[in-house]
Design brief:
Layout: E1 26-33, E2 42-45, E3 48-51, H1 53-68, E4 72-79, E5 83-90
Antiparallel strand pairs: 1-5, 2-3, 4-5
Length: 95
């Protein structure tokens, strides 16, 4: 049974954060999904991802992140029809 406040009346899970750990620096694997998993970012055609206009914006903005933020290094990423995966390294010491 969930305890504490719910997010939009649905979600409440215990924190998986390690107490005392500095989450300001480190490598992170992120996933961002579109609302209702709507395929805004493109479609898979013949086994290849074809980006829509919005999918191109997602890819460009991800790559721009490293340029405009000196404390960030980007690694692999992929834009899928209804979500995005990326690996990012944040170094809080170089801000």
């Amino acid at each position: 049974m969930p305890t504490g406040p719910l997010f939009r009346g649905k979600y409440r899970i215990p924190s998986t954060r390690l107490p005392g750990w500095d989450y300001g620096s480190g490598w992170y694997f992120i996933t961002i999904c579109t609302e209702s998993r709507t395929p805004y970012f493109g479609e898979i055609r013949n086994g290849f991802m074809g980006l829509s206009h919005l999918g191109c914006i997602v890819a460009e903005e991800w790559q721009r992140t490293e340029i405009i933020r000196s404390n960030v290094h980007l690694d692999a990423f992929i834009v899928m029809p209804d979500h995005f995966h990326g690996i990012i390294h944040i170094n809080a010491q170089s801000t």
